[in-house]
Amino acid sequence: MATIYFASNRNVLHETSANGRVFGERFNAGGPQIFRVGKAEIAFAGHDPKDDDQWSVGATRLFTETLDSRKADGVKLGSQKLFEELRVALKAADRDVIIFIPGFANTFEDSVRRAAALQEIYSTPAQQVMVVLFSWPSNGRVQPAWDYFSDREDAEASGLAMGRALMRLVEFLTRLREEDHKVVLAARRDGQVPEKSALKQCTRRLHVMAHSMGNWALRHALRKFAELNGGRIARVVDCAFLMAADEDNDALDVPLKLRHLDDLANRIFVYHAANDVALTISDRTKGMPDRLGADGPQNLDQVGERVFAIDCRQVSETALTHGRHQYYRLRDEVIRDVQATLADQPQDGRAWRETLRPGQSWRLPPK
C-alpha cells in the first residue's frame, strides 16, 4: 500500500471516493488557477511495480477548505492539512520529494497510479523518495487528434495553479529545514549530540520530474512561479528530470521557455531517444518538430553546465503500444540511472554509462 499526496486543478466530482473518482477532466469550477489537494491510498497486487495494471486506487479524499477569519478571502486552504501530514511522513524517514507532472492522455486515476509506481521504482535503500503529484486536466484520450491540442491548451492554462502549488511546497520545505536546523543547533548548544537521523533531516531535497507534455506544462508553471516571486527564481530544486519531453529542443536556451529552469534547479537531466515513436507522430501529424525528448538539447554549448543529456535510444524499446515513450519508468537501465542520481552516486562511477561528453552527455547502453 502506498500513499500519494496530490494537487489538481481539475473539476471536483466528489470530496471522497473509494476508487479515486474525485476529479473530472475539466478545470476547477472556480477557474484553471484554482487547485485542490488531498491524498490517495494505492494498493499493489502483483510482482512488478512497473506494471500500471497491478496498482489500484483505493480510498481518496480531498482535504477540506474551511473558513478562517485571518485570511483576506476567509478561506483556509486544504494545503495546510496536506503539509501537516507531509511533515509527519518526512520526519519519520529520510526521504526526498519528487513533484511529478504527467503527460498527455492521463486521467487522474491513471496519474495517481503512475505516481505510486514511480515512488516504488525510484526508491532505493540509499535514497527513499516521496512522489507528490500535480494532475492537470488531461482528458485521458489519444484520439481524435484534436484531443492532443486540447490537452496542450489545458496544460498551458494550468501554469498558474502549478506555479502556486510549487511555491507553497517550496515554502513548506524551507520552513521544515529551518525547524530541523534549529533543533540541531539547540541540541549542540545544550551539549547534546544530535542523533544521526536528526542531522539527515536537514538535507531533505526537492526534485521535479515531468514526462512528455508535462514538460510543456512545466514551462508555464516556471513562468508563473517567477511572477509570483517578483520575477526572482531561487535555486530551490535539486534535480529536474525532463523525460521524453514534448517540448522544443531549444527550450533550455530561451527565457520564455525553460531557460530559467537553470535558475531553479541545481542539475537538469534531459532523457531523450531519437527513435521515440510518440514524438515522431507528434512531429508528422501535429506539426511539432524538433522535440527535446527526441534529440536532446539543440546545442549543449548554448545551455548551462548544469544541463546533462542522456541518450536512451538503445534502451527505449518496451511494449509496442508504448511507442518507445515510456522507457523512463519501464527500462531498468534508465531506472538505475535515475536512482544513482537521486542517491548522489558519483557520475563517473556508474558502470552502465558509456560517456560521450564528460559532465554533459552520455548514452545508456542496453544491459
From TrEMBL:
> One GO molecular-function annotation for this sequence?
hydrolase activity
- Isomerase among keywords: no
The taxonomy runs: Bacteria, Pseudomonadati, Pseudomonadota, Alphaproteobacteria, Rhodobacterales
Full protein name? Alpha/beta hydrolase family protein DUF900
Specify the domain of life of the species encoding this protein: Bacteria
List UniProt keywords, sorted A-Z: Hydrolase
Per the UniProt record, the source organism is: Cereibacter ovatus
The keyword Lyase belongs to this UniProt entry's keyword annotation: no
Which InterPro entries does the record match to this protein?
Answer: AB_hydrolase_fold (IPR029058), DUF900_hydrolase (IPR010297)
